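This part of the workshop introduces the protein records we will be handling. A learned vocabulary of local backbone shapes supplies the integers on the structure line. Getting from the letters to the tokens is the skill we practise here. As an example, a complete record with its sequence and its structure tokens follows.
=====
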Amino acid sequence: MTSFGFGRELVDRAEGAYLYQRDGRRILDLTGGVGVLNHGHNHPRILAARQRFAERQRMEVHKTYFSPYLAALSHNLAAVLPADLTMSFLPNSGAEAVEGAVKLAYKYHNGRRGTVLRADSSFHGKLLGSGGLTGQSHFSFPTIPGIDTFRYGDLDSLRRTVAAHPGDVYAILIEPLSASTLRWCSEEFLRGLRELCTAEDIVLIFDEIYTGWGKTGSLFYFMRHEGLVPDVLTTSKSFGGGKSSISAFVAREPIYRRAYDNLGDALLQSTSTTYYGFGEECATAIEAIAIAVDDEYPARARDLERVLGPGLRRLAKQHPDIVSEVAGAGALWGVFLDGGPRILDVIARLAPGGMARDPRFKTKLIACAVVNAMYHDHDIFTYYTLNGLSPLVLAPSLVTTPEEAERAVDALDRTLAQGLGRLVTRFLKEKVSTLW
């Protein structure tokens, strides 16, 4: 990140969709905090909720005292989610939520099954368990046993993989929309997946850590398909309102009770909650949910989609030698950049150390050059995904206006019009030399 200007600059304050730097510049932040900032920076209702908690000297979550915040947050999660997704557990991070969900599925079968399936294109975290469940990791984690893989969105591949482990699959973990690759599962696939899991008594886990709370145009991406309900849902990132490190996995009541509704097993999920003070985190998440509902965040995402979708597709037609594909939903869009002058291939061969071994170095370099120009020329902050196919990403917070999204599309058009050769040459001259 220090190869970019913003790697060495200081932000004085942040508010809504903007970063205000010490040199007076106002930067439109289209990163959305990489999924964390659906509410934007320092939402006034989030700040007020946290201030009230402190001023009233409220008690943090305690092992032996009833916590009204914990109870209220669990109640509100159940209220906004469909069917019997009513039983919540609240860890710190998305990776912990994933591991808790998989652990729940294993316990549901009382350890009698030993296989968990994940897609070949997936990102679920970087802990040992969640890292092993991440499909596109280039690092081999010492991880939980019994992980097998199917092709993302391919129902035949999924069925073959389940059949290869007769009666032994305890969970299937998938992102209905993959934020790192900007690919998504069709309704046909998701309903077929649900039917298969029901028939085989497999716990179905949807990972919506990035895509929750309105980001893709519905409260959660899976909810755009009526009647489709997973057995367990994971969420994090903007669940904490951009302030709290909090996550959740929410299970259907029969699944959770079969696993943990007995005195011997009730505390098996408690080890990650011993030392944190979770009252303020719960109070913050309660307010974050309320804002998402009150301010109709799914509708705001659809408003942004009506600008970003047609606008970015138009750019793909205008710059076919640069843009190979545009994909996204709601306020989460990826622009896949390709092509470029022959010098890029030479640079890829000559790049030092780990860069030369990165099969996506050329793609990342092109994306970096565009990110750099958007930032310096137009005061717009974008990013590219570090996991997956590395598209340029426009993922505005849901406090961003359609007019600001239009400005971003126009700025990207003017940036691409410079040509990749000029953009990459400029980026290399200004920045990359500091890494070598």
Notes: Residues 20 and 369 are 23 Å apart (CA to CA).
